[in-house]
Amino acid sequence: MIRSASLSAVVVLGLSSFFPSANQAGTWVQTTGVPPSVNVFSTVTCTSNTFCLATDDWLNSAAGKVPAQGLFGEVWRGHQWEQTNSVPLNVPGVADVALLGCLNPKDCVALASSSYASRWNGSKWSSFEQIDGAFMAQIDALSCNAHFCLAIDTMSGSGLVYNGSSWSQPAVVDPTLARHRGTTVAISCPAAATKCVLLDNLGTTEVIGLDGVSRRAPLVGMSHGGWGGTFSCGSLSSCIAGGYSATGSGYWLWNGKKWSEARSETAGSLLGVGPALVSCPSASFCGSFTIPGPWSIYNGRAWEMGGTSSPLGGLNARALSCPTPSFCMAVTSGDTAWEWKR
Fold first, then answer.
1. Whole-prediction pTM
2. Could you check whether the bond before residue 311 is cis, i.e. omega within 30 degrees of 0?
3. Max CA-CA distance within the chain?
4. Distance between CA atoms of 172 and 16, rounded to whole angstroms?
5. Residue 321: which residues within 8 A CB-CB, separation 6 or more?
6. Handedness of CA 313, 319, 256, 103 (dihedral sign)
7. What does the alpha-carbon distance between residue 43 and residue 91 come to, in Å, rounded to a whole number?
8. Strand, coil or helix: what is 56?
9. What rounded mean pLDDT belongs to the chain?
10. Between residues 77 and 8, which one has the greater pLDDT?
């Protein structure tokens, strides 16, 4: 049974209301061991080049079986993928697992889109248990670092913290969300940080710390609703968001105080139709896929081009995780997984 963590325990963690060139672009290689039961990868998260977890939308559809709801996943231990145990969700009206995060290889969480969580102990997933009993709870954002995970309920504007042993009770971190239910939200908790940065498509940016929302700033230049959900922070003063403005698609940079649009000639040539995925393990490295699929790197100052088309066998990436500046893992809509090294 998942116990509720006290807010005082969360405060100890420092959390807000609770407790240049082609040779730099590296190489993408398709991984092996993806089980034949995989139909569509859902998401992926990695802590290092020797540990990643991925989840599937469906199980055994290739064998002609009716897709079941729940958690079906794979684990990467540096050489190939192995299938994990499957855990049924059995909650009417709740979709499959959409959010995944890890503190370390022996402590990960998977969240269904309502308010149910499963925990990974290094060898298997636990049964799902409800972590947010609020009416119409809808957890749509999750971020983890080595110390904690923060999940956001977009219906109430509340956050829940996982401290490695239990989940906290919900505490309001963005009251705007309760007034605008259904708002797209992302949260990013940089490595080694005890705070997180929250962004919603109403243009609100919040740095969540011990004193509650310690900084709030609008995402300037982007049209209303133009943020596409692409968001990651290498540090509390270095984040990237992707979306659309009146002049087209682009990336916006957060320096800890305000947003500015990336307008360099190199960045402009990389944007393609629009930003799709970004993952930043540090302030000096972000990996990104754009639509229709080119790979690029932001080094903290400028963009480095990694090609003009998708390096993933021509497929678009569906999820991306870069735990270090020298390793990334991507899963595609074509049921494949690819690792990047340099």
1. 0.85
2. no
3. 54
4. 10
5. 44, 45, 46, 52, 279, 328, 329, 330
6. negative
7. 20
8. strand
9. 77
10. 77
